[in-house]
Amino acid sequence: MTYQFDFGWLIESLPVLFKGIRITVQLILIGAVFGVALGIACAWVRALGPKWLKPVVAAYVELIRNTPFLIQLFFIFFGLPSLGIRMSELSAANLAMIVNLGAYSCEIIRAGIQATPRGQFEAGASLAMTPFQAFWYVVLVPALQRIWPALSSQIVIVMLGSAVVSQIAAEDLTFAANFIQSRNFRAFETYTVSTLIYLALAILLRQLLAGLGWMLFPRKASR
Amino acid sequence: MNRRNVCMLAFAAVAGIAMAPFPQARADALSDIGARGTIRIAVPQDFPPFGSVGADMTPQGYDIDIANLIGEKLGAKVEIVPVTSANRIPYLQTNKVDLVISSLGKNPDREKVIDFSEAYAPFYNGVFAPADVAVAKAEDLAGKTVGVTRGAIEDLELTKVVPASVEIKRYEDNNGTISAFLSGQVEVIATGNVVAAAILEKNPPKRPELKFLIKNSPCYIGMNKEQPALMAKINGIIAAARSDGALNTISQKWLKVDLPADL
């Protein structure tokens, strides 16, 4: 192999890389919190919510789960301005990630809710719990506990999928890698470094979510 | 046959033999074109609006219009030869074409091997914005957001000259930059006049106007060296087209703007 490796660019590119990492982390943190919140709300509607709202949520979930993330992103960033809704590339990226994760996590959480025996819900009611308390303690928490690994994977997938936000000039880690590569033309080294960073971020995020799972569901004996 | 005729015939034969072994070291391209009745011109086929293949599969564009204009003025039939940017100069050097009208820029390396006519088309990178945005130089961009195509020459040049307070938004390709401008995500873009023409083609509510130049590299017609007659003729045609407005009409047709004053 005659290729001469050169990592000399790495030092001067560190600020760009760190900014990219910061943006990617920021995107996934905001995206995960609000996306899962949206998913819980939608799962509640689909499992137990008012009848008239169910088709609306079903349409949202089907629309998002059956279209590419990149198109959703372009629609928000390049399409919505035609309707007078203009937002910065970071807001657009965040919104796209929340909407996307919301739809996928809705279906994951709904599966968890539907796996909860109906009798438990009634048992909660017989213990004089309010409907909200019953939903929270009897339905949602055990449901989340059941589907936590699947939800964690979905969050990691969304983080890796966030690479496409560089297409609308949001300066995430992929943007940083592309930017550096367009200046040093060292594609192999640049993408090796960015691959390793994504790998580290994904492993870190998984550990973080696993830790969060331990904290949220301490009583789970079967784990 | 009388004596006199025989003498003349002999003279003609000797004269003919005497002339024949001395062809010109290099043929005069202009008289060749005249003798042939056709002029072979290299044009781009993959670089709109200068040259591309239309819906009816015929070449069209700024360069093709110039080629036809020159053919018409020379009274020669134009033979269009599609070339790529890599092989346009070799085509000329190996005498496969008489002229290269293929959005060819001038640089010292090329000047060593071929000659260039006067400029016939504007080609530049600059900062574009709607009329109501007051920008005349790089410093005026302070605090503004500028869209560029990542890694393009204007990205590299602009990054060097603008103040730190300028936010440069780098899009993946020219289409991203065009979309960002058309959707109003950025008001100012740094790009080439060809991309600006592509935006003007869409008749946007806000029309991008050139605010200042980043790099100016107009297009010239390339021809083989030591062809003074052809060179004079071509330059004459360009000068005439410039003064009678024919060149401006072509510029309006393909680039949607008037010719710049310096061309």
Automatic annotation (TrEMBL), chain A:
Pfam families: BPD_transp_1. InterPro entries: AA_ABC_transptr_permease_3TM, ArtM/GltK/GlnP/TcyL/YhdX-like, MetI-like, MetI-like_sf. The chain crosses the membrane at residues 27-47, 67-85, 92-113, 125-144, 156-176, 196-217. Its main location: membrane. It is a multi-pass membrane protein. GO terms for biological process: amino acid transport. Residues 21-209 form the ABC transmembrane type-1 domain. Coiled coil: none annotated. The keyword Transport applies. It is found in: Cell inner membrane; Cell membrane. It comes from the Bacteria. PROSITE patterns: ABC_TM1. GO terms for cellular component: ATP-binding cassette (ABC) transporter complex. One of its GO terms (molecular function) is transmembrane transporter activity. Keywords: Cell membrane, Membrane, Transmembrane, Transmembrane helix, Transport. PANTHER family: ABC TRANSPORTER PERMEASE PROTEIN, MEMBRANE COMPONENT OF AMINO ACID ABC TRANSPORTER. Belongs to the binding-protein-dependent transport system permease family. HisMQ subfamily. This is Polar amino acid ABC transporter permease. It comes from Mesorhizobium temperatum. The lineage of its organism: Bacteria, Pseudomonadati, Pseudomonadota, Alphaproteobacteria, Hyphomicrobiales.
